[in-house]
């Protein structure tokens, strides 16, 4: 694995300067390794400035010298540090690549570019990860949302020739940038979403306006390479853009178009041209039963379907899906408010590989859950919030042997459920409690009896008594991560005593995006926090999915 | 019984006496002493260190002779570095005055500290040079270190094109 020296202005400059580089007189006699040691006291910005002093310094900073063996990254993400450490083991031109990534990092940290994340997916996998993390760190640490510098993006896109995946989150993508990406003709993944960390609910729902013409240009240029397209919270001026785009692109495997203008016709065109689809997320869209029928009749390889909250779907939607060809579905989330409860157990029979099921807001009752449980489902994740379950039904969860993630929020359950859950779900690692009025004492005793729980999440209008819970957590489960969402959807995060306070970056820690590895984003989404558990490895194996390298960190 | 003072010969043929305690602060001299146990005590040749620079090194050793043993100090430092960025702050006032010298002298002391393997002095000199580079523009660095700007306008334009201008770009 060797870097291609014909690529990149970077390397060309380095080669050119080596010819004329001469050590400055003042430094004569100073061995390079001593100067490398000096440079370990310099931060990234100072190193970059140093490289602009003379040819010798340029070559010195950019060569795979010991300069980069000690890197001051305290002001950057700890995730990047981890990645650097991990990559340290791989020698192939590593230092040079790190230099590039970090200089990009320092350069961009001063720009206001917050929301671009470039993944230089290429034949240099280590470079890819470094770059990915470096730029992710940039986007994470800059504050401003909407001040993306087009010139910065264009420079980066044109310079980093191997980039095949583009993530634009919470910012607008200009026509020039889109066309620059299109002209590379190698984009495999394009994500454009209006979702940013600081977005308000209103702007989030409004969606991101799109330049249809440029996007079609992009589709045409990248039709042979584009496999993943994510258009979350986006809107085109007319649905025809999507029709045309989906008829041009025929290699698509994953499409995510939640809260978008995607409709039945777009879905029909999409699945007709891309029957190989494996992932489809179309929640909160205009897709109705007709769209689901098109999916069910074409997509044999579908493993993930998210069609939640599509108002056009009816009680027939489940039947449509169970009678279709999508027998490989592993993750299913559809809107089931009017599906008769006796039909729900069919889900398990129809989709034998199912590992994650969302039954929220369905008519699920205790008897139905018992019937589902009797079929010994492989499920590792189950959402039964806003259903008709009672304490009795919760007891039947014991038959869900693999369950490690559970979401509940049930009117009919009482504090007694907090004693049943630990007994019924001994493997549980993630518990989400939606709008539930368990008493503080009940929650405390539940935490006490679930020492292996990793994440406890509250979605509640009321305040969660964190202070008193913290004491319980500190005593019985110091590794538990406590999360709460208040009614305005703003997340507050109260980590364990270990993680909060001691690490100032803990709140800003960029979680490695599941999309880094398209092979297993479904499982990774839920199991990121559980990556060290042998049990999870089994879950991966059962799902036929290789554990993510990111998760193994 | 070993003599309390050691003779060394510098690159300019000067013979200088230094105490055994100071000599042992140099790992290089210490190794030489261990190798020559029992042999006639001749002056140890230090062909890479001038008398002027050696006197400076002895000054530093005199001031720091009661510091913790070098090995311990390095261990502590390394442990710290695993968690924190390298800090180039020079806290000792005497050290601050010590490094207040011409660049050529600083470089010579650094080379001597490296050759003699006096870790504390070596780190001090590295920190000082790093401090001289920190927060400066390329022009200021060139001026401070007397470096000729051999980058062409083309090179600079290419750098700007590749990365954009840096904060300190002049």
Automatic annotation (TrEMBL), chain A:
PROSITE patterns reported for this sequence: FBOX
Biological process terms in GO annotation: SCF-dependent proteasomal ubiquitin-dependent protein catabolic process
Biased composition (Low complexity): 492-503
InterPro entries, alphabetized: F-box-like_dom_sf (IPR036047), F-box_dom (IPR001810), LRR_dom_sf (IPR032675)
Region (Disordered) residue spans: 486-524
Pfam annotation, one family: F-box-like
CDD domains (UniProt xref): F-box_SF
GO terms under cellular component: SCF ubiquitin ligase complex
Domain F-box span(s) in chain numbering: 24-71
Domain of life of the native organism: Eukaryota
Basic and acidic residues biased stretches: 511-524
SUPFAM superfamilies named in the record: F-box domain, RNI-like
Name of the molecule in the record: F-box domain-containing protein
Organism of origin: Planoprotostelium fungivorum
Source organism phylogeny: Eukaryota, Amoebozoa, Evosea, Variosea, Cavosteliida
Automatic annotation (TrEMBL), chain B:
MF-aspect GO terms: cullin family protein binding; F-box domain binding; identical protein binding; kinase activity; WD40-repeat domain binding
Boundaries of every SKP1 component dimerisation domain copy: 119-161
Gene3D superfamilies in alphabetical order: Potassium Channel Kv1.1, Chain A (3.30.710.10)
Pathway: Protein modification; protein ubiquitination
GO BP term, example: protein ubiquitination
Keywords assigned by UniProt, alphabetized: Hydroxylation, Kinase, Transferase, Ubl conjugation pathway
Domain SKP1 component POZ: 5-66
Family annotation (InterPro entries): SKP1, SKP1-like, SKP1-like_dim_sf, SKP1/BTB/POZ_sf, Skp1_comp_dimer, Skp1_comp_POZ
GO CC annotations, alphabetized: cytoplasmic SCF ubiquitin ligase complex
Quaternary structure, from the entry: Multiprotein complex (SCF) with cullin and F-box-containing protein. Capable of undergoing aggregation.
Family classification: Belongs to the SKP1 family.
Name of the protein this chain belongs to: S-phase kinase-associated protein 1
Protein source organism: Planoprotostelium fungivorum
